[in-house]
Amino acid sequence: SGVDFSSVTEVYSSHWAFVALKKDLGQAVCWGEYTGGGDCSRVDFSGVTEIYSNDYAFVAFKKDLGQAACWGLASNGGDCSEIDFSTVLSPDASVATTAAAATTAAITSTATVTTTIVTTTTILTTTLATSTVAATSTGINIGPISGDHVYHGQAISSNGHAFVALRRDSGQAACWGYSSQGGSCSGVDLSSVTDIYSSAYAFVALKKDLGQAVCWGYLPDGGDCSGVNFNGVTEIYSNNYAFVALKKDLGQAACWGDASHGGDCSGVDFSSVTEIYSNDWAFVALKGGLGLAACWGDSSNGGDCSGVDFSAVSEIHSNTYAFVALKKDLGQGVCWGYSSHGGDCSGVDFSSVTEVYSSHWAFVALKKDLGQAVCWGEYTGGGDCSRVDFSGVTEIYSNDYAFVAFKKDLGQAACWGLASNGGDCSEIDFSTVLSPDASVATTAAAATTAAITSTATVTTTIVTTTTILTTTLATSTVAATSTGINIGPISGDHVYHGQAISSNGHAFVALRRDSGQAACWGYSSQGGSCSGVDLSSVTDIYSSAYAFVALKKDLGQAVCWGYLPDGGDCSGVNFNGVTEIYSNNYA
After folding, report:
1. Is the model more confident about 81 or about 375?
2. Alpha carbons within 13 A on the beta-carbon side of 165
3. Contacts for 39 with CB less than 8 Å, ≥ 6 apart
4. Which SS3 state, helix, strand or coil, does residue 565 take?
5. 32-62 pLDDT, tens per residue?
6. Fewer CB within 10 Å, N side or C side of the chain?
């Protein structure tokens, strides 16, 4: 309340705050926790072209002037008063706008992925490599996804706690933020840098043409690569705590960072490696042509695959604690990692599997053509679906703790997992809320923990304002190839356009849009109860981690429900003229 959204062109976020930029007016409004960027009253936004963020601070970049202004938590990048940007930001610097704090950001009305604005009027083909991004296109930053980034041709880059501004033609750079986690790069030679990558706490700047790289930040988590030979490196991958530099043409790789999370790969044979995947704890290097793979990292959570047969593997999926390698042509699958959380699928029949989905703790493999599915992992989190009828199921949705199997043609659904968080919908009459011809976008759930590679298994088209991205996912939860896809939960945030079933981290809502009839289930105080909520004329549904908002765009109205302090109460908000709604976990 009190925020003037007139003339807003873009919205950005940190973990704790939002900034709405009015580019045409040279103005902006900020709100949220003031120490995390919610107060920008002293910032001059005239001439600002892009805004960047990390977890705790913002940077407003004036591309045409080669200037920038910062605010937020001073120790983590909110104070750049000592930075001479004229030496590091060229007025014609090549800059891609930042999908700031994508893990907590919301999504525009023409996209259903929580990556906000990418470049304007540009078509990019991007490939993500896990929570360890290793992209192949120029000019895009998707981040922070679990604090991981890759930057190609950008002027400003960030990890979770720091920023780096680089003028590539001269190699002049300035870093600020948490000094021990990348905010100090004094003495770092950034000349001839082609790409910048990050873990949660460190940076690596690759000089591909020279076969060199420099690293800085928190030393144990990737900030020290002094002993690494970067000659011949083609891609760099990371998770929160470690990096992998792959030399695909040479069949070699080098790793550094936290050894227990994959920072030590000294015994790994990288010859013939085609793709690298990861979960939160480990890496997998697949040798697709040979039917082999090598794993390293935390052995109990996927870092040991010594007994796994990778012959004929077509896809690899992951959840937070485990991996599954699918051999689609053979109708087989193999799993490893934390056994009770999906790492043991020894009794699972993978014949005729068409898609694999996951929650944090479990997997489900759908056999769409047969009307069957198999589930495994922690049973309370969705690993037991023995009582579910999958005949006619067309899509599967999930939140952190539960699944919903949707029968589009029948207007029916079935639920399982943690009952209090959406796994029990036995009291829901779906015939009144799910039309047989309901427009539904399939869900790629828990994408933040999935692995994504350059030849991944599902292609989704993500459309933002004047921008088309073709992104390839190989997640443990990949759903389908339709436009309007929802990748969630990313920190519990979602947007739904024309979908029949929506979710936040703890509840679901099923809506029949032609009649406004709806049913909600899950954690009642966090969106699982919508009795008394008028959902007629709803055009879009959004969520935080604990609440929903249903926008009636044509009427200039909206209704909210769920946990009141975290967005469930919008009674004082004027929605007239609203075009998009953004959210983080709590607002």
Report:
1. 375
2. 29
3. 30, 71
4. helix
5. 887 888 899 999 999 998 888 887 888 898 8
6. N
Contact 289, 272 (CB under 8 A): yes
- What pLDDT digit, counting tens, does each position of 529-553 carry? 888 999 899 988 988 878 999 999 9
| Separation in Å, CA 580 to CA 10, 465, 551 | 10, 11, 9
Give dist(CA 481, CA 457) in Å, integer: 10
Compute CA 371 distance to the chain's CA centroid, rounded to the nearest angstrom.
30
Task: Name residue 106's amino acid.
Answer: A
* pTM over the 0.85 mark: no
Burial group, residue 429, by CB count within 10 angstroms (0-12, 13-18, 19+): exposed
Query: Could you write out the DSSP letters of every residue in 406-453?
Result: EETTTTEEEEEE-GGGTT--TT--GGGT--TT---PPEETTGGGS---
Buried b (16+ CB within 10 A) or exposed e, 525-535: bbbbbbeebeb
CB atoms within 10 A of CB 565: 11
The residue with tokens 């420099």 is: 214
325, 300 contact by CB (below 8 A) = no
What is the distance between the alpha carbons of residues 366 and 356, in angstroms, rounded to a whole number? 6
Burial code of 181-206, b = ≥16 C-beta within 10 A, e = fewer? bbbbbeebebbebebbbbbbbbbbbb
Question: By the 8 A CB rule, do 413 and 404 touch?
Answer: yes
**pLDDT class for 407, splitting at 50, 70, 90?**
confident
Q: What is the largest CA-CA distance in the chain?
A: 66
Phi, psi dihedral angles at 301 (to 5 degrees): -120, 30
CA–CA separation, 70 and 48 (whole Å)? 12
Amino acid in position 473: L
Distance CA 541, CA 494 (A): 8
Helix (H, G, I), strand (E, B) or coil at 76: helix
pLDDT of residue 487: 21
Write out the two tokens for 435. Answer: 């039309």
Question: Is residue 183 predicted with pLDDT exceeding 70?
Answer: yes
- Backbone φ, ψ for residue 244 (5° rounding): -135, 120
What's the pLDDT band for 108 if we cut at 50, 70, 90? very low
Q: Among 249, 245, 264, 165, which residue's Cα sits nearest to residue 204? A: 245
Spell out the residues 6+ positions from residue 258 whose beta carbon is closer than 8 angstroms to its own. Answer: 220, 221, 222, 241, 242
The percentage of residues in the chain with a pLDDT greater than 90, rounded to a whole number, is 40
Distance from C-alpha of 425 to C-alpha of 428, rounded to nearest angstrom: 5
Rounded CA-CA distance 332/540 in Å is 39
Q: Going by DSSP bridges, is the β-strand pair 242-247/252-257 parallel, antiparallel, or unpaired?
A: antiparallel
Q: What amino acid occupies position 112? A: T
